[in-house]
Design a protein that fits this description.
122 residues; mainly alpha; flat
């Protein structure tokens, strides 16, 4: 469990620190002379997704550790990783739909919440 928490924490700190460095760098801009700098945009979103996944992983693991004390740690770790990756993927889909002007961000979050609640009920 300590190895899992250390790895997740180190990944979160690294992604946030590297994002902070890139945002402070004047050469890291999303648009250049020719058009969009897709490498910069993809690196930024990859680091944001990794940071969000690690943060959700900490939150879900903490909640599961408080509520389900009798389950073994390896089961709680696997389920928290699964749930955090699903939530991160859902947030990524909501943002991509918002980015391409298919669906508003708040509408997408509302639909994501309804889908998540429906998965628990059904």
């Amino acid at each position: 469990m300590i190895k899992y928490l250390f790895t997740t924490g180190f990944t979160l700190i690294f992604s946030v620190g590297f994002l902070y460095y890139l945002i402070q760098n004047s050469n890291f801009i999303p648009n250049g002379a020719v058009g969009y700098e897709w490498i910069n945009i993809l690196v930024f979103f990859f680091l944001v997704i990794v940071g969000v996944a690690c943060l959700l992983n900490f939150i879900i693991f903490g909640i599961r550790k408080l509520l389900f004390k009798r389950l073994p740690d390896d089961v709680q770790i696997k389920r928290s990783i699964r749930y955090s990756l699903l939530l991160t993927l859902g947030l990524l889909v909501v943002y991509l739909l918002h980015f391409y002007h298919i669906l508003g961000f708040l509408w997408g979050l509302g639909i994501l919440i309804v889908v998540i609640l429906a998965l628990f009920v059904i």
